[in-house]
Protein: Lipopolysaccharide heptosyltransferase 1
Organism: Trichlorobacter lovleyi
Amino acid sequence: MKILIIKTSSLGDIIHALPVLEYLRQAEPAATIDWVVDEAFVDLVSGNPLINRVLTVAFRRWKKAPFARRTRRELVSFIQTLRQERYDLIFDLQGNLKSGLVCAFGRAPLKVGFSRAHQQERLNALFTNRKVGFLPPDKNAGQRYLRIVSAPFALPPESVVPHGDIYTSPEDNAHAQQMIGGAAGHPLMLFHNGTTWTTKLWHAEGWKQLADALLLHYPQATILLSWGTAEERMLAEEIARHIGDRAVVLGKMSLKQFVAVLKRVDLVVGGDTGPIHLAAAVGTPTVSFYRCTDGSLNGPLGRDHMIVQSPLPCTKCLRKSCERDEECRKSISVKAMLTAAESCLDHGKAAAL
């Protein structure tokens, strides 16, 4: 059986979709699976042993220059490559117009996607011939993707332990080890303070107080601090100065190199941000906090992942700015974050015994 998965973006959503590979491996062991992904996120799926071929699109770049010769050449090449293969199944896990067009150009008798109630864009409905609705337990994005890919098979999605992986090369692993350097403390933790919306951030004092509390409980620990922007780096360095010699501010890395670092740490702490999802995808325990978004929907699943939701009545508001921003940041208590971190670390220690 030949299967095509269309999941082009974004980072967190692709990571949520990775467990469908393990499901398909168990449901149809002889299947060969191709994956369509945007060039910006190809590192998330490249090298995965469960994927036969990765087909890349560049929708974001093509949109900026739709009539450029390069755009036309790449688009024609992609369509020709796609149509060379005849699939048995196509799964559209994106649910918008662009993914629908990819689905339309793909050749398969069965094209499975979201029900009309759950599509990102209604025109997507024109391009699938089986539409899958969700059940009440399907709150998390990962559960919803599993529901869609399980539709043609007898194996219930609930019977599969959801997990994924992101392949890293020996070179990536060696670079990660070099980046960590002499950070030999145990447990080895990583703080990532940044994210895309200001309403997803925590306050600087919260990070510092959490570091103090964790180092009091685990005096041999080391805390790595990662960053993605200049502003995030400044805060990481501020937190590191507060911590002292038990802190290491990481340098700039490729996505694969960063994933290799995440595979080596015992715990990752952050907000609703890509590194949390990356860590969960490679099996590293996480503690994540949620203010404007819903942790039960966006957060990682499993007992190794603890979610702290703001207790304010207006939480999960999905607002990108708010006049109560400072109050909301402080509603994520250090005590709640510490309790969650201890739970993850102590559970991991018990599992290793």
